Hints:
Layout: H1 2-41, H2 43-46, E1 50-53, E2 56-60, H3 117-134, E3 161-162, H4 164-177, H5 182-191, E4 193-194, E5 205-207, H6 208-222
Antiparallel strand pairs: 1-2, 3-5, 4-5
Amino acid sequence: MNNSAANTGRVLWAGLRALLVLTVITGVLYPLAVTGIAQLAFPGRANGSAIESEGRVVGSELIGQTYDLPLKDGEETAAPDLKWFQPRPSNGLGSNSVNTQYSIILSGATNRSGDNADLVTWVKAAKAAVVKDNSVNGYPVKPSDVPADAVTSSGSGLDPHISPEYAELQVRRVAERNHLPVAQVDELVADHTEDRLLGFVGEPRVNVLKLNIALRALVAAAD
Length: 223
């Protein structure tokens, strides 16, 4: 009986020591080492890929934002501020106007199938809005001109990028609203179009926040 109790005690003590050692290694030393390496090698990414403008953080290049007008009395959904380039549709993006704080409401896709009636209605309404918002005098937008990312959200609902095609579709509207030459705004989009990773991974893309920060600087320089 005494031997059995002694053996049990030794096993429990050995297990406790293993627990303590592994807790220190995996719960303290390993996280500290990984954090330290990340801070030395990739400080920007380790700290959330923050984007700064005028000396303060205005967002992350990994998380999208919306650019809306202030809510009016009786409105449930804010109207887009059409002087800015607009992101993909999403119910998950907090409201922002380039340089103010924003909040993430939720993350996730619609979880609707391609033939879901609600999704079809949303896409049709989004396409009609894109056509209406981006048609300017002498340059009407046709429904066939609207790319898929202009009317559908990403899987996370937080995509910070749009396609170059969607950015180009918005150029004339942004130029008109900000009293800028179309060529200047078009060049801005070209300058902020990122190529495929390593030349073959993913698709060309435009970070909307970076583009809007550059747009604001261009507007300020023109005033």
